[in-house]
Amino acid sequence: QVQLVESGGGLVQAGGSLRLSCVGSGRTFSSYAMGWFRQAPGKEREFLARVSRSAGSTDYADSVKGRFSISRDNAKNTVYLQMNSLKPEDTAVYYCAAGSSYYEYNYWGQGAQVTVSS
């Protein structure tokens, strides 16, 4: 089992940047694929990005491709989401998740609020 804690959320103006961090504890962090998701009010949870255990592979949703970048540092048990050119429609609660496979996620953080003002 792994526990995940996100940080780095906040309020930013449109066009600005934020970097979210997610620290994992418990079982070996590097044994998990990691992903970022978000959920806006009244909407379903949306996949954003994922990174493989060794960071050799990454994948992005079309809605964030070219603006967001996922990375991980297994020595620090941390996965990051760099978000650039933010838009008001990026406003949501952002979650990191850990999975035993690249496409299936079993453990979730508590979420971090990101608000983008116009």
Structure description:
The structure is a single chain. By secondary structure, the protein is mainly β. 0% of the residues lie in helices and 53% in strands. It contains no helices and eleven strands. It has strands at residues 2-7, 10-13, 18-26, 33-39, 46-51, 58-60, 68-73, 78-83, 92-99, 107-108, 112-117. Strands 2, 4, 5, 6, 9, 10 and 11 form a seven-stranded mixed sheet that branches. A hairpin with a 6-residue loop joins strand 5 and strand 6 (58-60). It is globular, with a radius of gyration of 13 Å. The protein starts with a strand and ends with a strand. The model has no long low-confidence stretch (mean pLDDT 95).
Brief summary of the model shown:
The protein is mainly beta and 118 residues long.
- Taken as a percent bin, the fraction of beta residues is over 45%
User: Portion of residues in helices?
Assistant: under 10%
**Largest sheet at a glance?**
7 strands, mixed
Structural class by sheet pairing and helices? mainly beta
C-alpha geometry: globular
Indicate the low-confidence ranges by residue numbers. Answer: none
Quickly count the helices: 0
Query: What is the CA-atom radius of gyration, in angstroms?
Result: 13 Å
User: What value does the average pLDDT take?
Assistant: 95
Pattern of helices and strands? EEEEEEEEEEE
- Topology, number of strands: 11
Distance between the termini: 40 Å
